[in-house]
Amino acid sequence: MRLGRVDIFRLQMPMVMPFETSFGREDTKDFLLVEASDGVTSGFGECTASSGPFYSEEATETALWVLRTHLLPRLAGDLDGPDDARRRMAGVRGNPMAKSAIETALWDLTARREGVSLAALLGGTKREVPVGISIGIQASAQALVEQIHQRLAQGYQRIKIKIKPGYDLEVIEAVRRELPEVPLMADANSAYTLADQDRLAALDQFGLMMIEQPLAHDDLVDHAKLQARLATPICLDESIRSAHTLEQAAELGALRIVNIKIGRLGGLGEALDTVRAAHRLGIGVWCGGMLESGVGRALNVAISSLSAFTLPGDTAATARYFREDIADPPFVLTASGCLAVPTAPGLGVEVVPERLARYTIDHSVWTPE
User: Fold this and answer.
1) Could you tell me the residue range of the domain that residue 154 belongs to?
2) In this structure, are residues 356 and 320 in contact, taking their beta carbons and an 8 Å threshold?
3) Which of 14, 42, 175, 304 would suit a FRET pair with 136, their CA atoms being 20 to 30 Å apart?
4) Strand, coil or helix: what is 241?
5) Which one is catalytic: 29, 99, 160, 261?
6) Any idea what DSSP says for residue 331?
7) DSSP assigned state of 327
8) How far apart are CA 119 and CA 348, in angstroms?
9) Does 346 reside within a domain?
10) How many domains are there within the chain?
11) Cα(28)–Cα(18) distance, rounded to whole angstroms?
């Protein structure tokens, strides 16, 4: 494989409704889309960094600079597929979401060249994947309960609610009063410290599937201390940057479940390594979401088709976030609360040029010298 051209699009897509977490509120999806071409076939990848360095230290503009200046020049010449790209980019420290944008485009390109679906190329075996839904911070506990009723009626198998200090015990108690049996998890996005362990331990009474990333985004040790105190499993998200950090976290006893996000891990290669490590260590596995467009959504569905993914993911139907997506066909929730795994070559979705042009605010092209 030899890359002849890489297009980088910066898009801003309006969301159906604002999404609020402990670190901010989004009403527009600001992201990069990468198209990698060998001159005959193209593949697409999505950068999951948001407009500011809040979920992680990366942001749309920093990812764009790193891609143009440091990552793409390393991919000039003959390229032996996505794993080779991963090795070449390893000399650039960090910046996993920028790396993932081009690495996942190469996976799509490879699958299209071979005439197979990405799910099949990864070793996926499922025809459909079960999904839950993430609900952002609401104006009141009652508003949250109403949102949950609406989402359950649509068929979602599991509910995740965002929490933060002052928006936790009371709202979860309100949900449990009305919906005592619904599969429920809480995501703190690093909003707490170990000083809050009594409050977090009080969540044990609600029978949660897990508490996701309660403490600092880069912490393992305090999570181990907290997990020893809690009956509820801790799931780590931001703290797990590689298969190696997962192994370290497991040795410390810092988690029982891991959230797999392709962008956070630097691409599909590292994500696959992390899934294998989790399976070997007896750690529960599920796929998280980053408000992706249809390209990123297709990537999530493809990796979720692996048998190691045993918990419903956060890859909701397209209509949950966007009235109009850049890719067709949209992902639609089935009657059983699942998303069908695409079987067409590559991602199984096609970027619609007119929509891509509609939402693009910046476009640049890289070609090897």
Assistant:
1) 120-340
2) no
3) 304
4) coil
5) 261
6) P
7) E
8) 9
9) no
10) 2
11) 8
Element (H, E) at 86: helix 81-89
Under 8 Å between Cβ of 155 and 131: no
Among 178, 147, 202, which Cα is nearest to 320's?
147
If you search the block for the tokens 């640049």, which residue do you land on?
364
Closest listed residue to residue 257, CA positions, set 288, 233, 290, 289: 233
27 C-beta neighbours (distance < 10 Å), count = 11
Say whether 261 is catalytic: yes
Residues 6+ apart with CB under 8 A from 294: 318, 325, 326, 327, 328, 330, 331, 349, 351
pLDDT along the chain (369 residues), means of 10: 96 86 78 97 96 92 97 96 96 97 98 98 96 90 92 91 93 94 94 96 96 97 98 98 98 98 98 98 95 96 97 90 94 93 97 97 94
Say if residue 98 is in the same domain as residue 132.
no
- Indicate whether 361 and 297 sit together in one domain: no
Structure tokens at 158: 């599991």
Residue 8 pairs with which residues in a beta bridge? 34, 364
162 assigned to active site: yes
Same domain (yes/no): 88, 167: no
Q: What is the CATH number of the domain that holds 36?
A: 3.30.390.10
Structural domain contains residue 345: no
Global pTM reads 0.94
The answer on 161 and 88 residing in a single domain is no
* Catalytic pick among 99, 160, 162, 164: 162
CA distance 319 to 306: 24
Rounded distance between C-alpha atoms, residue 174 and residue 24, angstroms: 23
CB 252 within 8 A of CB 220: yes
